[in-house]
């Protein structure tokens, strides 16, 4: 049943055409200073930044073939926000031509750069060395934490659900998962769908007149605030009695995706909700909340109307929020695959609608640099919220449970640091039922935690990030894949230096590993006293933090037995060990994918 649901879902997702645009994009210069350098199993492509670009598309061809986009098999956007790019989809020993095109918007590729050549090297049996140096005594800067502002969740009405999933009550487990995100990772807000879905009983029409009931919403938000978290209020989906076509639905729970039969009544509903929230929780509190209009209307599966009808929905929604207090924050387009950002901004600039933040989504690549779009349309002060992000947009994908996905999270958060105001991983828990409830413990669910609350590798990655200190330190790297395959994030606090190092390609065909991409990392941290000890905490396939490997070793079937739950919890933890320092250097071997946090402390 689940496989059938997944196939049906994949077939239904389609981006809308953007042929109805009423504006044009700038003709960006192609990137300059393009280089391509072959290494063991990889080619690293580098280039200079282009003003106005939100990203870059890597093009590749053989000596005689056409240049085509390099596909790292994410199932989503192939453009990347920044250089360099590591291509591991190439065949070692084959000569390639590379070029880079500037991207002003996710559906538009500009002119390509000059063509450069490179040959990925055939592995010779040795493991290449990458040398990383961290300046431990530098003044440093404040370390950005894009994972802290927000995380995604199943619709929050599930906090009240008393049904069982594998014998475990859904509501309390979802609540504990969100509590853990707050307490251990420091997350501050939760973004979820469907506050207007009929299971919250917010809106009905009696004898043709609207009736509002916020009793269920109050219970939901009371619970959330009790955990120390705030909601991102996604305004959707459509209440049945307000829908122009209630037969248009999505998900197992039947969320209605139709435009309203009355935009006036939709605006009154939004206004009534916001007024109620202000009265219940106080204006000072609600001023810290964000109001996001709908979810992924640029996918036909989520919005049965036209783009123009959604723009009208945005205008009405934004006006309704601002009518309560103009300081309240509203934004969108909450789009799939980084789409409709320029469309919303151009529309809002033309009609005078407010945009306090831009929100959009992508999977399988680091988030694009949409600040260029905001500045192009006169919204340079708006915040940037990636309200959904993850390793794959595909339900029931084994990569969601893999170590690859954990290391991918590290790469994306580092890329987003300083560029975005929030990068919300989708979602906190496998208590998530858009296409039905989980059929087994490790089913490739989107959650950072399983049913039963066990940490997946992506949760472990969040935990490693949370252990970085408040001061970011400069780091340099050189060697085969330095800065593209092997990356570093270094930090300091009062009596500790913490350095995260990882080895990853975006190429999902190598999610289970590739021996030719292993690297020896020589980490030197001059300035750390010789008496300080070094401890390494690993996230590695078939080892530290690999929940799938632990479950396989224990012979767990679809669901653990009572004894196996506790055994699995013990076997899936991160492993730490003291490592030897050779002067100011620590030598580590990192497979692809894997990560290590090295912490230097006084004895």
Low-confidence stretches: none
Please list the strands of the largest sheet in the order they lie side by side.
10-13-16-19-20-21-22-23
| Largest β sheet strand count, sense and barrel closure | 8 strands, parallel
Q: What is the CA-CA span between the terminal residues?
A: 56 Å
Written overview of the protein:
With 603 residues, the protein is of the alpha/beta class. Helices cover 23% and strands 26% of the residues. The chain contains twelve helices and 32 strands. An eight-stranded parallel β-sheet has the order 10-13-16-19-20-21-22-23. Helix 6 links the parallel strand 19 and strand 20 (329-335). Helix 4 (263-281) packs parallel to helix 6 (307-324) and helix 9 packs parallel to helix 10. The longest helix has 19 residues, at 263-281. The protein is globular and about 80 Å long.
SSE inventory with pairings:
Blueprint: H1 2-12, E1 35-39, E2 42-46, E3 55-62, E4 68-69, E5 85-87, E6 96-103, E7 116-118, E8 129-134, E9 141-142, E10 150-153, E11 164-165, E12 168-169, H2 170-185, E13 189-192, E14 203-206, E15 209-212, H3 215-226, E16 230-235, E17 249-250, E18 255-256, H4 263-281, H5 283-286, E19 290-293, H6 307-324, E20 329-335, H7 341-351, E21 357-363, H8 371-376, E22 383-390, H9 403-416, E23 422-425, H10 457-466, E24 471-473, E25 475-479, E26 486-493, E27 496-503, E28 519-524, E29 533-539, H11 547-553, H12 562-571, E30 575-579, E31 585-590, E32 594-601
Helix pairs in contact: 4-6, 9-10
